[in-house]
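[job 0412] stage=complex_fold ligand=nicotinamide-adenine-dinucleotide status=START
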Amino acid sequence: MGNRLAGKVAIVTGGNQGIGRAIADRLADEDAMVVVGDLHDNRSSVPGSVQGLTFMSLDVTKEVSIRTFVDEVLEKFGRVDVLVNNAGKVIHKSLDEQTADDWDGLMAVNLRGPFLMAKYVAPEMRRIGSGAIVNIGSVEGYIVNPWHTAYAATKAGVHGLTLGLAVDLGPDGIRCNTVCPGWIDTELNRAYVEMHAGRSFVEQELSQLHPVGRIGAPAEIANAVLWLASEESSFVSGEMISVDGARTKKISLPAILDEEYRAKLMKAW
Ligand SMILES: NC(=O)c1ccc[n+]([C@@H]2O[C@H](COP(=O)([O-])OP(=O)(O)OC[C@H]3O[C@@H](n4cnc5c(N)ncnc54)[C@H](O)[C@@H]3O)[C@@H](O)[C@H]2O)c1
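[job 0412] stage=complex_fold status=DONE, emitting structure tokens
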């Protein structure tokens, strides 16, 4: 598609599927050499999307796995210019159901993982005098769905990590930003919608929660990541950028008023 990342080496964690795979493909489209780090080498899961990607196994919950992975990337490619911390999990549990192990397990993937990835990649970026770290946070770092206490805490933590890394690594020429996706059409979310009997009603309701009239696509997150990874955003650091079709900008109305608003929107679409 282009050459905005020509000569750059990019790491994408959790890039086997979903948003991570769309990011990996988009960066490779712009001529980056992309290393996907994920639990399993799942290169054939999305046919036709593996050109320009290298797959290596990585468990972001294990410090030794991260060190080995970064060493292997350096051995093979000699540098790291871009780190995308995308690997993440979610749990849906009430406070009463949640255990300390649930909490620790989620923190390990969603927050400790990005911290350790940055820790082991930063010295290499410092050596070359530049770098871009892009985290995948969530709108749930600001607002929250029911039963997502732990998930929201991890994502708010990612937003805090972003601020800290931007401040501490800025003098080394390293920028750090976060993309906060709204509701994105991934396998995970599709399975969640399909669990409900009135699937088409749920889909319609979901679309209407978004002022733009629809949910997002993984490629739309990837485009925002590309911008933050590229020199086009060279003076942007420490930012949380929502990519959510303005869902988080709309205050809930009493149901009757909301219905009037929706009826107007339906006419407009
Ligand atoms: N889908 C959405 O609507 C949405 C919304 C907001 C934020 N997000 C965030 O976007 C990111 C990607 O979400 P997705 O919907 O594509 O999820 P997904 O479940 O489809 O993909 C997650 C990927 O991360 C990998 N992974 C999980 N644990 C790992 C570990 N310990 N080490 C390495 N890799 C690991 C998985 O194998 C998988 O390939 C996550 O951080 C998620 O919190 C998603």
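Residues 100-128 form the longest helix (29 residues).
[job 0412] exit 0
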